[in-house]
């Protein structure tokens, strides 16, 4: 399962038109402000035109009325998954994103979400190197990894990624997603960190270059 999850996730990200922008966008968005495309282009080493094309191809990318980026995995707009870093309240598209983000930005965060089955609040304290605290400790993460084309990452994948209060709370989700993954939060972090490391998106790799 470990290998399947990591390989499926990497293959999925590789099919996203804007995949090369994700780590740069995440680090800029972590400052809590909309990102001008010129800044994103400079960070990624792309032309502004190439950035425009990639974001237009990925319909999930969120832009404000000035055309600035406000969401790509990490978002300034509210979602069920709150992500607080350096005192700034941000949000993420799915549960797995919240575990990957600290690895990409190299900073600890507090994640708050709600079990969609029981309504129980879930809180996770997570840093670049691991999960420090999970409340409740029985919480698990769900993830779907489809193999078809991805025109909209958020609609095709992120909508299925939740925190559940326990494995027992995932029964309906698992029945609806027989090929999906359900793992404890700490294990989910380990797998998602392996994905980020394979992609070369972790903050430590960036600092070493």
Structural features, described:
This protein is α+β, with helices and mostly antiparallel strands. The protein has one domain: 2-Layer Sandwich (Beta-Lactamase). It is 39% helix and 22% strand. It contains nine helices and eleven strands. The chain has an eight-stranded antiparallel beta sheet. It has a three-stranded antiparallel beta sheet with strand order 10-9-11. A hairpin with a 1-residue loop joins strand 2 and strand 3. Helix 1 packs across helix 8. The longest helix is centred in the C-terminal third of the chain and has 15 residues. It is globular, with a radius of gyration of 16 Å. The model has no long low-confidence stretch (mean pLDDT 91).
CATH level-3 fold name: Beta-Lactamase
Provide the CATH architecture: 2-Layer Sandwich
**Coarse shape:** globular
User: What can be said about the biggest beta sheet?
Assistant: 8 strands, antiparallel
Rg value? 16 Å
Kindly state the mean pLDDT as a whole number?
A: 91
Please state how the strands of the largest beta sheet are arranged side by side: 1-2-3-5-4-6-7-8
Low-confidence stretches: none
Defining key terms:
single chain; 209 residues; alpha+beta; Beta-Lactamase; eight-stranded antiparallel beta sheet; 9 helices; 11 strands
Summarize the structure.
This protein is an alpha+beta fold. The chain has helices spanning 2-14, 22-29, 37-44, 48-57, 95-105, 153-156, 171-176, 185-199, 203-208; strands spanning 62-63, 69-72, 74-75, 81-85, 88-92, 109-114, 121-127, 130-135, 140-143, 163-164, 181-184. It has a single domain (2-208), classed as 2-Layer Sandwich (Beta-Lactamase), CATH 3.30.450.
């Amino acid at each position: 399962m470990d290998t399947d999850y990591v390989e499926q996730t990497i293959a999925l990200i590789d099919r996203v038109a804007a995949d090369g922008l994700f780590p740069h966008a995440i680090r800029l968005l972590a400052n809590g402000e909309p990102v001008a495309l010129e800044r994103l282009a400079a960070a990624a080493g792309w032309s502004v035109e190439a950035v425009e094309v990639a974001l237009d191809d990925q319909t999930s990318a969120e832009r404000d009325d000035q055309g600035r980026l406000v969401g790509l995995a990490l978002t300034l707009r509210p979602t069920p998954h709150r992500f607080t870093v350096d005192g700034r309240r941000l949000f993420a598209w799915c549960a797995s994103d919240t575990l990957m983000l600290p690895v990409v930005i190299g900073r600890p965060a507090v994640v708050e979400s709600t079990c969609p089955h029981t309504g129980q609040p879930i809180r996770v304290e997570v840093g670049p190197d691991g999960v420090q605290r999970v409340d409740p400790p029985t919480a698990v993460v769900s993830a779907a990894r489809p193999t078809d084309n991805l025109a909209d990452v958020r609609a095709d994948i992120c909508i299925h990624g939740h925190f559940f209060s326990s494995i027992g709370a995932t029964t309906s989700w698992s029945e609806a997603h027989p090929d999906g993954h359900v793992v404890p939060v700490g294990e989910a972090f380990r797998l998602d960190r392996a994905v980020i490391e394979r992609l070369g998106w972790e903050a430590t790799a960036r600092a070493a270059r």
